[in-house]
Structures are given as C-alpha cells and as structure tokens.
Design a protein that fits this description.
Chain lengths: ~250, ~250, ~250, ~250, ~250, ~250, ~250, ~250
C-alpha cells in the first residue's frame, strides 16, 4: 500500500465503486497467514522477488512441514536451509515432492528446474576443503534463485598460484562470493583481482584463535579491498540471496 | 595479462614481430609507481573502474600530497577520505585545484562535475543526527563516483513512522545504504521494505554497551533481513564504493 | 523488622508484656528454613508478593522436590523454571499435584487457577518462531502471577507490516515484554509505538555473530527507544516477574 | 492513525463530508518537521506523554539550538541530556529562557516547575561518590517529568549498614533506580529488600577489570534479585524515563 | 639449596669431609622423580608444607594412579581434585586405600583423620544451591589440610537477611572463602562485615550474561571491599590452599 | 550490633536501667556521617582495623578535602590513593599537615611514623621498571598500615637469575605481593619458591595483546602455583590492604 | 615460473626450439591436481621442502584417503594431523602402509625412517602433563621432517627447579619449542635461559579464566623475553614446521 | 654456572687452588647491577649475543639515560626502542654520542657501523603506508644487530600484482618479516611464496573492527601458511630480534 494506491482506493470509495467495508479490509488486511507458531509471510515473493526461506535450526520437523504446506497452499515455492539429514528424512516422508541436497543441507519444494533469471554468472570461491558446506549452500541457493553459478574450491591464499590460475573464472563473473575460514584473507585477494562486488562469507572453520569464525569475520570487515561486503559467519544463504538480487539488476 | 594476451604475445615473438626484450618487459613490468613511501597503483582505474582512493589517517599531509601528485601525473583523479580540516588546509595550500567537503571529510582532485554513470539511484538512509558524518561520506563518494543519490536522514526505528513516510524514496532506489549506530536496527527494517541490496554501515555513535559501534555491527551481521550485507564500522566510503559498483551493473 | 516495629517491641518489653527471651527470638529468628542444601526463604511471599521461584538447572530432581515440599509445608505455592521434561517426569512422580507446561518448561505446585490481580494486560511480543520457548516462559509466569496476557508471535522487524498490523494489541497493554534474538531490534520498534514500559528479553537464538544472544543484548541495551529496560539473555521469567510487579501498581 | 480512525475517515469520504485531497493528506502527512539535519518528532508528547529529549554528544550547539527552537515553536518543552558546560553556555546565550543543571548536565526549556503527575515516589540510590553524576541525571530527569524523588547516596554494599539504615526510604518508594559502578552489586541487595521494580544503572566508574562499566553491567544483568531490569551504562536518563512511565500507571 | 647451605658444603669439601662426587650430586640432583609422563615433585611437602595435589581433568585414570603411587612410595600423602565418579571408581579399584568424596569430587590417599594445624576457623560461605560443588571442594581441601571449617550455604545477597543472620559465624573466622556465581556480589558484602582476609571464588553458575563465571569474576575483582582477593573461576581448591597457608601463620 | 549485645540492651531495658528512647537510638543510629556528597564511614577503623581509605579519581579536590576533614574530626587517620600531583598540591594547600608521596601517589593525614603492628615482613616484588608506581603504592600503603616491607624490583622472569639471586628475601617474608604487567608470570615463579601466600597484582604495563593488563590478569588467575590470589589491575592498594590483614594474624 | 625461466622460454620460442602450444602450456599449466573436493598442491615439496600436510578435522576419512592417494601417486609423502583414532582405523584399513601415532594423533604415509636433515637439535619443552598431546604432535612432526628432537616434559614454572635442572638440554638445542597452557609462562623463562629462537605454543589446557588457551596465548604474545614468537593455540604442528625450516638453515 | 663448571670449581676447592670465600662468591654473585630503579642485566650480551634493549614507554628520560650509562660503563652497546622525539632530544642532550632514528623511533649508543654477522638477508615486507613506523623499527633493529636488510613497502594483498612483482626479493631472503594491519593477510600470501620462516607483525593500523590490531593478530595466528609465527601487535623490534637470531644460525 503506497500513496498512489491509497488515492485510487479513496477515489473509488468517493465514486461509490468501492464500498467502505471492503476498502477498509484492503487497507487493513495483513499480508500473512497466522499458523499456531508462525506468522507466515505469503506476500514475500511479491515484495522481494524470491520465495520465503525457512531457517531450520530451532524448529521441529512438524513446524517446518507446516510452514512449507502453508507456503505451498499459497502457491509459493519453499526453500529450507540448514536441514540436518535426519530432519530432512522426516520432512521428505511427509512431503514426498520435497528435494534434499545433503551437501548443502538444503530442502526444496517447487519445480525441479529454476529458469535462469540472473543476467550474469555468480562465482563462488572457497578457501579450503572444510569450507565446502558453506560454499555448497551458497551455490545451491543461487541456483534455486535462478542463477548460473561457477564454483572454484580449495584456492586459499597460502598457495596463491592456485587462485591466480583461475582469474578468468573470477573476471567473467558479475558478482562474486568468497568463502573462507581461519584468517579469511581470500576476499581481499579476490577483491583486488576484479572490479565487481565481492560478498565475503567468514566460516567457523579453524581452531584456537580462529574463535569460531571471528578471526575471519574481522579480517573480512577490515579488508583493504574496497569492493568487499560481509555477511554473518557461515551464512552462505545470505551471500547467495544478495548476489541473486544484484545479478537481477 | 591473461592467457589470451600471453598467447598473442608468444605468437608475435614466434613471428619475429615482437623482440624478446620488449616481450619480457611487457610480461614483467609492474603496473605501479614506487614513491619514497608508497607503491602507487596507477592501473587501478583500468582494473577497477574508479580512481585510487587514499585513506588519510596515519599519513602526513606531505605523503598525501605526494600520492595525489603521482596520480595526477598519471592522468588519474584522486579522492582522499577522512581528511581532518587542518590537514585539508595544508593540502589545499599545496594543491589549489583540490576541493574539500568538510562535512564528509573528503578531498577531491579532478573535474568538479562527475558525469552520471550509475544506472539508478543510490539511497542513503541514516538513523540519527550523530550518524551524519558517515552518511555524508557515503553520499559524497557515491556522487564523485558518478551516481544520483537520495539522502534520508534521522529516520531511526524508534519512530518508525518517520521511515514509513518515505518508503517511496526507499523503493525507487536501485541500491540502498543504511547507516546507524547504537542498536543498528535500521538496515533490518529497511531491508524488509525493499527488494534491492542493502549495504549496512554501523557507526561508532553511542556510549556504554554500544562499544564504539560493536553493538550496531553485530546487529547488522545478524539481521533477520536477508538482503543486507555489512561493511566496517564508520566505513561510509566502502559502502558507497560497493553501491557504485552495483549501480553500474 | 523496621524501626517502628522495634520500638513497639521494646515498649512491650519495658511494660513487661513481652519477656526478654521471646523478644530476642523475634528480633533474631531468621525468616528461612535450612534444608540440607538450601536456606529456603519462607517469608518471601510476605516480602515480595510472589511465591519463591526455583531455577532448576544445576539442581537434582531430589533437591527440587525437597524445596517444593518445604515451601508447600510452609503454605506457599511453588514455581520452578527451566525444567527439562525428564526432570519434570521424576518430580511429578513424587509430587502428583504438580503441573508441568512443557512448552514453557515451567513446573507449578499450587491452585490450578490464579485469580487476576494485575490491573491491565501484559503483552508478550516475540520476533521469530525460535524465540517461542522464552516467550512461552514469560507468558506462563505472568499468568501464574495473576495477569491477563496477550501473546503476539513471529512479528520480527524485517517484515514490519506484520507488527504494524497488531498495533492495537500493543497499545492496549499496560506493560510489554519484547522477546528477540539475532539483532534484537524488536524492542526498539515496539518501544517507539507505545507509551508504556517495555521489558526487552534478548534470546540466544541465532548463530555466528549472534554470539549466543550477545548481539541482541547489546542492541537492546543501546536501544534508541527510551522506554526499554533489559533483562538477561533468555530470561523470560525475569521479564514476567518485573512486568507483574508493574502491573500490580 | 489506527483502524478505527481510518474507518471514520473513509465513512466521511463516502458521505462526502471529507474531500479526497484532505483525507489523503491526513493519512499521509508525517508527524514530524524536517530541519536541515534532523527529522524532529513533534507528535512525541502525544504518543509518549513526555517531551522529545535530545542527547547532546555528537551534536553541535547550533544543532541543539535548532532542535530546541523547533520543539518550542511546536509548543513543546525540551530536555537536553549530557550537555557539557561550555556547550550549555553557548546554548543559554542563544536561548536565555533555558535552564542548566551542571551537576546533572541537563538543559531544560519549559516552565520552571513541573506539576507532580507520578503517583508515588521514585527512589534513586547510588553506591559511591563517583556515581553521583549519573544519579544526578536520573534525579533531574525524574523531577522534570513530574515525579517526587528521594535520593540516597554513597550506600555501597561493602558497608551494608549504611544501606540498611535507610530501608524505610527504599520501602516507601513506588519505583527504584539503583546506580552503581565497579561490581554493581547494589541493585541485587536493594532488589531483595523491596517488592517494587528496581531499574539498575551500571556506571563507568572503576578501573582495570571494571572495563568502563562492563563488570557492573554484567553483574546487574545476572542479578539474583528477580525484580531488577537494566539500562545502558551511565544511562541515568533512560532509568528515569522508564521509572516515570511506571510511576504514572 | 641456599647460600648458607652451599657454604657449608664447600667447607666440608675443603676439609675433606665430603668427597667431590657426592657434593656434586647433592648440588645437582633434582628434587623430583621422572615418570613416563610427569616430573613428580617429591620435595613439595618440604618446600610448601602441603602434599602434591593432582588436578585430574586431562589425565587418564592410569596416569593419576601412577602419580599417586609415586607420591605414596616417597612417603607423601596425595590429594586429587575434580575427579569424576567413573574415574574415581577405577582409581579406587587399583588403590583400595584411597577415599573418594563425590560431593567435592576429591580423592585422598593418606590417613583418614588430619590433625588440626590451622590456628583458627576457615569460614566457607556460598551464595546459592548451585554453587555447592565448588564450596564443597573448598571445604574438603581445607579439612584435609588440617583446618576447622564452618560452612554457610545459600546466603546470596538478594535475601540479605539470610546472611546477616549468621554474622557471628563470619566474624569468628580467621580467614573466609566466599563462593558465588551470577553477579558474584557475596564477597563484597561479606568483606564489609569482617576485618579478615576474604578469598573470593567466582563460579560458572548462571547463564547468558554470566558468561560461564566471567560476570562473577569481574565483579569480585572490582569489589569495593578492600579485603577481597580472587582466584580462578570454580577454583575452590586454590581458595582453600591459600586459606590454609594463612591459617597456619 | 550482634545478638549478644542486643540481649544485654534488652535486659537493661527490662531492668529499667536503659530507657526506651536511647535504646532505640542505640540500635538504630547509623555509624556514619552524611556529608553533602558522601556517607562517610566513621566506625570503619573499629570494624576493620584500618582507617578509611579514599580513592581519588572521580572526586574533586574539594570533595577529598571534605572527607579528610570529616575523618580527622572523628579522630581518624586518612589515606588517599591515586592522587595526581596537581590535585595533591591543592589538597596540601588546604590541609598543610597532609603528606604526599608522589612516587606512590599517596596522600596521608596522620602521625608521620606508624608503629609496626605486622608480625613479619611483607615482600613486594615487581617485574619491570614500568611496574614501579604500582609497587610503590603497595609499599607505601603497607608501611602506613604498620608493616615492615622489603622491596625487590626489576626481577622479571625472562632473566630468572635476577630473581633467584634474591630467594632469601622471598623466603623470609610472611606475605608476598608480586607485581607484574605484560605476561604476568612473576607470581607463578615466586609462588613456586615460597610456602607463604602470594598476592598477585597485574599492571596495565604493556601494549598490544597486553590489553591494558588483561593478559597479566588472566595469567595470574590461571597461575599453576596454588598459593596465588589476585586483585584488580594496578590495585597495589588492595594487595597491601590484604597483606596487612594477613600480617596481623 | 620466474623472470629468468620466462626469458629462457621466450628465447626457445624465438629460436623455434619450443613451439607456441607447449610454451603456452608450460606457462599456464597449474601445479596442482583437482580432485572432487580439493585442489591438491603437488609442487609443494618442490617449493617448500616438506610434503603437503593435511589437517584432518572437518574432512571425512574418504576425503583424507583420496588426498593421500593423490599425493602418493605424485610420488610424495603425506602427513595428516589431528587424526582421531576411529578415523585413523578407517584410513589404515584402506591404506595399510600408513602408520598411526595415537599419542600425537599423526598419520604418516612414507618411508618409516626419515633421514636427519636438520643441522642441530630441536628441544620441545612442555609445562604440564595435560599439554602432552600438543608436545607429542610437535615431536612427531619434527621427527618426520628429519630432525633430532629432545623432549622435556612437566617442567612448569611454578616448580622452577625442575626446569633449571635441565638447562643443558635447553642450551644445546638449535631451536626450541615451548608448550604451555594456563598462564603460559614457560616460554618467557625458557627464552631468558637461551640465545636461540623459541617458538611458543599456547595450549587449551586449563579452565575458567584460561578461556581455552587465550590466557596462555596473550601471555606468550606479551612475553618479556625477546626471542619468543608464537603460533596458534594447540598448534604443535605449526611450531614443528617452522622449527624444522629454521633447523635446515 | 652449569654442572661442568661447578665440578671444576669444587675440584679447585678440593685441591686448595681456590679458597672457599671466592668460590662462594663465584657461585653466588649476581650478573647484574642494581640501580635505583632497575636491575640492569650486564651479562646479557654474553648470554644472548645482543646488547640489552630498553623499551622506552613508561620510563622517564632520566631513567633511560641512567640505564644507558650503566650499560656503557659495562662496555656494552645500548639500543632504546619507541623513543618519542621529545624524549630523544633530552637524552641526546645528555648523551651526545647517542644516535636517533626518528622514523623508527630508535635510539642507539655504540659504534655507528655494525659489522654484518647475519649469514643471509632479512626481508621486511609491509602492507600499507601506515604500517611504515613498525616496518622501520624492524629494519632499524635488524641493521643494528648486524644484518643485511631488504625493505619492500606498500605491497598489500588487495593489489597482489605489487607483491608478485617482487617475488625475487622474497625468495632471496633467509628470514622474512611481514608487517600488516587491518586484515593482516600479507604473511599468509608471503608464507605461501617462500620456504623460509616468516615472522608476522600485526599492526594497530585500521579502525572499527580492526580493534587496534586484534583483527590482524587473529588473522596471522590462524594463517593457513604453515611457516608463519607471530609477535605482539606493533612489535617490530621483537620480529627483528628473532630474525637476527635465526640469521646467525
């Protein structure tokens, strides 16, 4: 509801074309469905261009199933992130049409193929083998959101030739996602090699002074490359979400 | 230098069109100028699309003047950030063509008007009066980088009607920059109102548990709005840099 | 024992109405019962207006049963918080009159209906589905303490229309409790919409930079809404306790 | 603007009593005044019951004067907090009717006497001499907001008899504010002595492991007294604001 | 070996009373026994007045048995702290003379009764029921080290009358140990009531902003009572060790 | 006032030897004097055995003078810590009998010689030259409190022979105070060389990862020497206070 | 590929000795093998002098086997660190030639004896029994990398005579590794006794204020011994790696 | 004094060649000189191979002069670090032979030329212009300690070509020192390019999430390059000290 739409509505009421009760309803009715435990946002695709995404941790399989069914009933696709395999099994038992990607811990209810809507390619670059699940989440989400994705793995900066050998992949991307734990230096180096936005994802990979991703997070926030922005630790989903928005521009 | 260019060069050498000495030089010569204290990157505009930007703190007026002259001599524009007024005076004394914006603490050496190259508008939204310098930096940089900018100030979430009164400004932007200190909640609310990327800038505004911007930083990193990425505390420049890159896509 | 009561006692002794031994006892006798492991406060209802509340973690089922029996023997009601279901089973086996609310993790020994003593309504607002257990604790405690309670769930600020659709609920409350994890922005927005005290409860919901509730805690402490005070992370009980005190004023 | 008011407006439009242009304006016009640097909330007293309060740090004397004049022009009183004496001098030069309390660092523009609207007394208790400025801010704000205030100073818990000698003051209050730095234990002891809400204000008093108020803040958040809520470090204003709200109930 | 002893030895050598080989050995032989995994200090009782104390976590039952046997073979008593019950069972199987106190998690190999060597009483005061294991460790160690001990439990400062009812116990002690988690205010209040040294033990009891004992630790370090010193979180042993040293003076 | 004294008083009242008014006064009169800004504890020497000690930072010269005069009028000595030289000058101007030790930043009002009441010697050991002010504060306070003091300076553990050359000084002390910044290892080594209590004082000496004394503080709290307790960063006063208490036992 | 090699290659092409295709390949071909999940660096021994070392945590047994086989196929030795015993069993099942050291948690595929290439001895000194696994990792890695190693265990600074009894071992080493948890003071004392580089390894041994190794880490970083550098918490491998590099110089 | 020397001494005493008094003295006399405020280590050059180095902050000019004179009187050279220019002026006034390097903040008393004793070259690499003072300190110390030094400045990883253009400098060094603030990624990249030890120096350069060098420090401690060890923030001296030790091996 914006000023323009409000004016039209009021003119309709003034002309008698629209009755007061339904106009009141239009202005006041909420764009969500209340379930027992959640207020599900059914207008989200309209407002944001992507389906509602459910973050699984802290929710029971039953709650997730209920939200997915509500979204499905409203004609929307549903994507669930961070789904452990045992929870996924129970959900897929109840919703056989759901599709589970164990590597990326993603659960999907919708058409198996997503049409490409992104204008270019999203490159996902990860520093080490242990960063793989976060990178996989980013790749999986970006593909479900209609993007072509290039994945470049295990190219940490301590063996810089491995990264430099793939600069073409970096430079042909429209948006980049750099995933790294430990000292989190990858986005700085990648950022220096391209003139596109780089979304940095710190991971909780590492031990001791890595402090569960804090070292990487601080490193990325203080990156000397100016084209880097940062999302939360392990938030491959968030990086892919923003990359998809940018890739549609 | 990429694989394709290397191949051409080698073919030229094979044909005898290019002699070994100059080919060696082409492959090996560095794209920078060494001054006494800095290795100035003179190919940056070529690689990144924007001029080299100098971060003033920790540098003497003399060092800044030297870098600006080196860039100018290489035909590049120069932008200096976080320039305190006394340093600016000394630089402008030496470089009368330089232009200083005290509000944004920006110093500029280049044409007074920058042609618009961004495809849409960048909206800069700030929460409180005290966040003004950071927002001003973001606005100033974005304009110098060729963008139309809308500024919306003092619309913190504790008076949500002030923000909601300007949703049209928010929704007509192609990229948004949300600047806030204290609890840093503004990007979450803004993010929920638009379907465009939002770059969040925590500021060091606040006291006590604000911890110099840490409260806002953590709040933005854990934003429940999925379209938010974050830059360093008070980094209005970085936000504008990335917003400009996105706005050129 | 206050100055006035002391004077009466001394006058009684002076008149010979009260003998020295019993006066000594009255002044010196402690308002508690020592069990093997605890000094149970049996005068608490007298002093504070609510029954003693037991925090279960770190206590064995046997210790909890013992405290509940001591309170019961002293004619007091007993409320136990954070009781995991297995511990609750053992306690209910020993004390069949006890009532367990699994959602709120509350155990209660007392009359099943609590008369309404609060003068108005307490509104409990929670940001996300995962904040539900903390909100449920707040609701459960407030009801056991004799209040009418309105619960508004899943109204996080990134979908601000969900919250704005329920402003009437907010504005009709006498005291409000706002429960949120992650960036913890909900109390700021709620605080801006009402002119009543808002008690903010940060939750440990979130990951990475949420740091187990620290991001939300800092956000709430630095809220730009002036009518917000804060309790410990996940402390739904404390919020309800203070809200009940306020609602009796 | 709530649902009820909207319906009335629509009915007026339907009846032809209200024309479309002015109805549009009523729904859409913002309850604030935009100045050069701030969006001043002129409906705040209506919504919150207290005048707009300006936090001085980070604002120039000129900006503060401008906000105070805008509020004054809108018929509102103005209270400014944390005003250093030199800034106060400049403001009082421009606004001779303004009144400055150096101890509490408060600046006031409004009638010299505030009628008592609070139903009971607010007790402000402080632990040490160095906590005095924060306690003074709480006292000053609570008085300007129409409350009777009792002040009890220098009653830290390491000399518990000093506090116990004044329990009558504590027990006769309707709301209490406990101000303490260092280990911040005062609110716990005070909370145990009364059955009213206690608002705890940690102060930045102390050195070393006091960490600028963090020790006191953590101590207050983890208080074993259930009737304690907490505001930000040194936030005497916020405590008085909430205490005033409670005292009006 | 000190200067005096060295001189005697050299004089013995000069007189021919002591041969070079054995003098060399005396000066150079180490006061410890090397086992496979540890350098066991067999002169400790001589130097420190108490037996070697073994900290169990991180050691296998076999390693603990080996150290205890080495100490026993050297005629020393052995005390092991933080022994979980399953480990204790295995050790007691191998060393039937060992005695296990499950409450205090202490294992003892030596005479069942320790003669009283402390000159006065050590008072151990604990704030809450959950602090009991730490208090029990302090009590158990102090008794094994030859002290009379008074234990006062569950006297947290939020019910200050519980503590004040036992001031005689406090004042009759020669040294005091105050054990508390959460806000850790107990030592400040106890410290103000006595003129003896108070050793504060923060415990990891609490949740959220208690940060595993950090809130209590900081509170104790910044105590406004001057007679308080602090040991590590949950270090009931260390407190009892120092209290025993003081009580022997 | 304890139980025994209360009984006597009541018996006096019962016998008619004591009238009600004065008995009431005796029980209720507070052992302190209220000044404008402080509640000065005039019974402290009675309860604690040492004069009231005033912590100067955060107090004006006028406030300090007022407290010193109040104490002096009550026949007590006064010690003020952390007095900067300019503040000291102003105080000594008003109170010519006061004595200032610039090295230790201590101000004293009382007899110039303090009779020795401590039973043994207190050894103060400091690691580096920069720790000198904190060590000087400990030495000065311990002397004013009636102790013989040995000072051993600049014996940090990285040149262990410097410390070992003075083991006789260490071993002849009855209580030890070990002062160190940076890694704070001195108390661990000292603790291992003696069988007396060691009070560790971390100092804010150091840079970078010293974090203003946090590194030393943590090191001392986790010392592997069991006879070490810790006071706040730079708290030479507190260490001397407790050492004096112990030395009187 | 360096400037010299490039010139030779170009001259070969100019002479016609090298054809363009193979020269392009030489310049561009990457010195690694891409497996499904990793980019294995097969030139590492060439560049760094030691085999690739695999960090096991976060990798499945299958991934580790695959990397080991890739390295083996490239004629390289393989060392895997932090291998838990169950993972080791599965790997040794698949690769019977692999050798597992449970104490050091190291897995090795290569010749059973490594020829000594280090010029001197590496001394590994550890503070307590619980630091043993980290010390064992350092010893194991240093031996596999071709060094003579002396191990000195359980020589913490609180019993300084244990360390001083072995100064000859310390002084005969060419490089030293000092391993310690808790207050981490060992490297400072060791550093003061030798004139060789000391690599400090903080361990996560300890509890409470040890903060999982942070106390030791900070202590080592702020060591007053100038010959100390530091590696990550528990990083026995890294210390041995650098010590081996130094020992080859 | 070691076992061998002790035996010789004892044999001399047994033979009557050495009298008891002087033998006692030899064993017991301390290798230091006590001044008023410091215990100056005059045997340090003997034990460590380098002169005593004085850290200026926290010491007065007079104290520094006194230490330098004591060292000079003992025939030793003196190096003072972190000397601000005003302090240097006063020292040079008193000691005209002293030499001050303002860039590196180093003060030197000794021969103007130091003979080269290091076997190879030490490379000092710094990331940005603002890291210059720390790099200069490292360069200055390494030269005073007898090393050839190569300096490579302003080669941060976000412009990786600047660093790669100088790999020959990196690879020809025997030891490397990498200096960087902000995200501190330089040592990881440098470490991957060489097979020599790299000493990483985090600097306090940066703002916001750089936290005064903490981001760089954590990044370096968690570097994925195995040949990296770390010193304290801004500790250019320490890095040069260790590099010099290594370069002498």
């Amino acid at each position: 509801m914006d000023r323009h739409r409000l004016k039209e509505l009021l003119e309709g009421v003034a002309r008698g074309d629209i009755d007061v009760a339904s106009a009141t309803e239009s202005v006041a009715s909420p764009p969500f469905v209340d379930t027992d435990h959640a207020r599900v946002d059914t207008h989200r695709a309209l407002r944001h261009g992507f389906p509602e995404v459910v973050f699984a941790p802290g929710k029971t399989a039953e709650q997730i199933i209920s939200v997915m069914q509500t979204l499905h009933a409203a004609g929307q696709q549903a994507l669930v992130t961070r789904v452990e395999s045992d929870v996924a099994s129970r959900i897929c038992g109840a919703l056989p049409a759901a599709d589970y990607d164990a590597d990326a811990r993603l659960l999907w209810l919708g058409p198996s193929e997503t049409p490409i809507e992104g204008k270019g390619t999203i490159a996902v670059i990860s520093a080490g083998t242990a960063d793989r699940p976060v990178a996989a989440e980013a790749v999986g989400v970006a593909r479900r959101f209609g993007n072509k994705v290039d994945l470049l793995q295990d190219v940490g900066v301590a063996g810089i030739h491995r990264l430099l050998a793939s600069t073409e992949v970096l430079r042909s991307a429209r948006v980049l996602i750099a995933v790294a734990g430990m000292e989190g230096a990858l986005p700085s180096v990648v950022g220096g090699l391209v003139d596109k936005p780089v979304i940095a994802v710190p991971t909780s990979v590492g031990y001791g002074a890595a402090f569960g991703g804090v070292a990487a997070l601080l490193g990325m926030l203080t990156s000397c490359a100016s084209n880097v922005t940062v999302v939360n630790i392990d938030n491959g989903f968030g990086a892919a979400y923003v990359a998809s928005l940018i890739n549609r521009l």
